[in-house]
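Researcher: Please translate sequence to structure tokens.
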Amino acid sequence: MSAILEVKNLTVRYERHVAVENVSFSIEEGDYAAIIGENGSGKSTLVKSLVGLIPPFAGEIVMHGMEKREIGYLPQSTIVQKDFPASVTEVVLTGCLGNERRIGPFYTKKQKKTAEENMELLGITPFAKKSFRALSGGQQQRVLLARALCATKKLLILDEPASVLDPVVTHDLYTVLHKLNRERGITVLMVSHDIHCALEQAKTILHMGRSLLFCGTADAYYDTELYHRMTGSCGEHFANHGHMGHAALEHHHAEHQNGDNQTERGESTCM
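Model: Translation complete:
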């Protein structure tokens, strides 16, 4: 595999405040990476810089085989997003704006087909004509993910996509992301506030503390002082990381549907 994204000595500032300092890493094609760290550690600032929303103060961001406009970006949920006055189809179609020009005020047949395919994939076709703001939080996240997919076939960057979702909807969202990563080969780079969930989902972990404190495999992260500090030394090492971790999520989801709210010792805490 070759790198799809390289970050070289990146520093990002808000006036005199340094939010991200001298960060370097690369993300391979097909990877599933999670950015973790304490509040205020520069996680969201980093991804905003990657997608072009905040210019670097120093350093370089290099895309291989794609341009920034071809990144599918799902930002943190906001009140404005939730109250967006448009139909589901209209919201999803806006994801096509960066990858192909429209003819006047109209979308092309290709763009409409792409939107329809991604709506079908995310299971939101029945809501196509509904107002976006009338949907539940989980449905809105699916709409915004379909919108992000309209912009890319290669790289998804998500900023805490599950922060406003309940456990079952969170499980469903991560199931979709795994499917996109595994079956479509889409590279996923996700900011997560939940360290246990990040470790179960991702192959690669980036731990931010304004600078990059760790970059490596999820299994290697378990052996670091950072992991013990973040979990209070009470987190468990899920030996069956990756696909087996995802299976644990499936098991948890089934238990929830059966009305069993008790979690067995050692099961994932990210739900």
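Researcher: Any highlights?
Model: Confidence is low (pLDDT under 50) at residues 238-271.
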